[in-house]
Amino acid sequence: MKTRLLSALLAASLLGGIVRPAFADDAAPSAPASSAPLSAEAKMHFARGVKLYSEEDYRGALVEFKRAHELSGIPLVLYNIGQTQFQLRDYAGALQSFERYLAASGGQISEARKQQVDKDMEDLRGRVGKVSIETSVPNAEISVDDVSIGRAPLTSVVLSSGVRKIVATHPEHPPVTKTIEIAGGDDVHVRLEFSPSARVRLDVPASDASQDGRSLGPHPLVFVGYGAAVAGLAVGGIFGALALGTKSDLDESCHGRVCPKADQSRGDTLTTQATISTVGFGVAAAGALVGSYFLFVAPAKSTRHPESASRPSVTPYLAGTGAGLVGRF
């Protein structure tokens, strides 16, 4: 397969708005294969791609050629993209780019060029294999070598030969990874099994968290409610006792509703103590109601209304050398 891109003359022709064959050793036609004006931005990216390719910076060249094609839509750039992918040993990507090039060019390329592209594609078909992927849980996200390729099940996915890492992810299960070897011409089937994992439901409306249907104890708000009730009783009791003591002192020093000036501040203190005591007992009552509701009433409602699939859930997992949480919110 040829591995050289445009000559300086060809690059100048393309940047001037004329599309010509992609290789320097191709004979230049007497008339351009097609004519299409390029924007200044497309010309800039194409020129950068040619320069980076000549410097063997193939990853950079690939980015520039792709951007030039996005901006121009010129089929020829797809051929350059395919050649660059070949240099990066992305044989599956190169094959796809050449197929797109032929489809987009139609009858606008010479028979000699078409034969050369067909020959290149035949060589590439010996460097790729086909893989069908299924998972034990439907609709799992599939990635190959950290690039997402869709959702399972997938059939006849073309992958470059070599060692490939396939990962399946699902929001309710720990990820599954499988490494496979693909030889040219292979047609293999891969199944990824998600391991069962215990799910801890964090359902706020429900009374109990549970694991596989087994109760893990009262709802956290039971403890919050009764804790607030205890604290409220303590505050209310302490300040209530202080208020009673202050009132007793005022009763001794005051005659009726007339108190000495020295004891007038005690009246303000009595009011403050009584208010705090009242608030404390109010908090105690509210906390007791909340705790009792989630202890006695909410469990009955949870029993009558099965858990909805839309409720949030968190699943802890331990897989290989890693651990983590997956869930639905």
UniProtKB/TrEMBL annotation:
Superkingdom as given in the UniProt entry: Bacteria
Q: Which organism is it from?
A: Labilithrix luteola
**Which keywords belong to this entry?**
Membrane, Signal, Transmembrane, Transmembrane helix
Q: Where is the PEGA domain?
A: 129-196
List the InterPro entries hit by this protein, alphabetically: PEGA (IPR013229), TPR-like_helical_dom_sf (IPR011990)
Q: Transmembrane region positions?
A: 274-296
Q: What is this protein called?
A: PEGA domain-containing protein
Secretion signal span: 1-24
- Pfam families per the record? PEGA
* Keyword Transmembrane in record: yes
